[in-house]
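Purpose: get a first structural picture of the assembly so the mutagenesis plan has something to point at.
Setup: four entries, given in the order below. No constraints added.
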Amino acid sequence: MLSAMTATQPLEAILEELEQAEGLAGLQAATEALRIHYQIDHVIYHWVDSAGDQYGCGTYSDTWRNRYLELNYLRVDPVIIGCFQRFHPVDWKRLDWSSKAARAFKSDAIEHGVGNQGFSVPIRGPNGQFALFTVNHTCDDAHWAEWTELHRRDLILIAHYFNEKALDFEPERTPEQSQALSPREIDAMTLLAMGYSRAQVADTLSISEHTLRVYIESARFKLGAMNTTHAVARAMSRGLIVV
Amino acid sequence: MLSAMTATQPLEAILEELEQAEGLAGLQAATEALRIHYQIDHVIYHWVDSAGDQYGCGTYSDTWRNRYLELNYLRVDPVIIGCFQRFHPVDWKRLDWSSKAARAFKSDAIEHGVGNQGFSVPIRGPNGQFALFTVNHTCDDAHWAEWTELHRRDLILIAHYFNEKALDFEPERTPEQSQALSPREIDAMTLLAMGYSRAQVADTLSISEHTLRVYIESARFKLGAMNTTHAVARAMSRGLIVV
DNA sequence: TTTCTACTCCCCAGAAATAGTGAGGGTCGA
DNA sequence: TCGACCCTCACTATTTCTGGGGAGTAGAAA
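Result (structure tokens, whole complex):
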């Protein structure tokens, strides 16, 4: 199976198809196409969210997908936990499967058709957006290592394109435009986000604490925030300050 | 110049070189190699951070690099601000240059050898790590559009590889993943980031304000934060909470 | 079993932030 | 020239946070 793979010319065609994809259904179709193209068991793209698995597509069975959500495997899955801390794409073998919950999860997964080998690419967008692009298969370690080595770059690019599309479909994810902050307000928000107290910020900016307070209040007003912490949080999530 | 570019066979060689790169000097050499290879004015990879531009490499002049740091252009640069809110790689023309500070920045940049055209790829790692990979050049819009279209995929991959290397070289940059927050701590931080006061948060979570305080304090401790605002800011920038 | 972590509750005093109003001078664009 | 916005400074009373203690439960891990 794996050895029959053609490493030539796949990327272009697949990326073209991805670029044409419309809506979640388009992405779903792309995962199926990739699965067939690469002749592997599964291809999955999914958005990982504090609220759970609200968005994604892939070739897993509905049974497994539902089970994953119901049993809240999100909090147990070593793939999620491990990828969340990494930048590099990662082979599942390198993750930490030592806990009892993780082992139980794995055997349950395999029972539901998930391959024993896997490779996942973490992807991050603005505002803490986090998603995974995963391929998995059933085969031995040597074949899998060879296959992932061969297609590593393709998978990174494909993951990137999947996420681009997913973000396009979810425009409400992009931070809303708000009134810009003045330079002094940005200074104030930035220093506050760095943990300085008002007194320290005022001192750092060489202004009186009274003046500083005016900036904080006007920033709060512009951002529609109820208190300083809220204002800083909004400024950060809108990309107005970088901390 | 641009038309003399060879689009064939570059990616492999360049990525090979990148994979061999050792230390920041290796990345620096890679930017230079890329600049020559693509025959463009500049190639830059840099990490964006509250503390400023402490880590990066590229082909800008030292004069400009220092000026950028001294004048704290980090807080003004529309490339930073724009890319921070995006996932897609972005042409500089599509950014918001309308503010006075932004226009002043741009003309200053061009005076110091930065090209009038630019293309930047935002890259994000764990714990809120954020970096940019930028190429820029002096030419007209049509040529630039053609060139970026041609090399878009390569640039995404190169950006990815740069960041992999940079993270490998700077393990201490991502240490503070230390302890994850407990579920209750995440609840507390999230609600605080949404602007709730302690009383409101306690009420929402149906716990006493005293208990809430314990969570806030332990979260603050885990995050190494000096106050609540700081803790929320860190939790956000490390992607522990999403608001 | 023991240890560890998470979760819950309590008191108090001092430090810090907030609300409400005000005022003057500067720059910039219409 | 005039409005709009930015930067700077001031007072008082009230609310909210913070830092220092201590203590018991339950569940999971070693």
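Residues 2-173 of chain A form a domain with the Beta-Lactamase fold (CATH 3.30.450.80).
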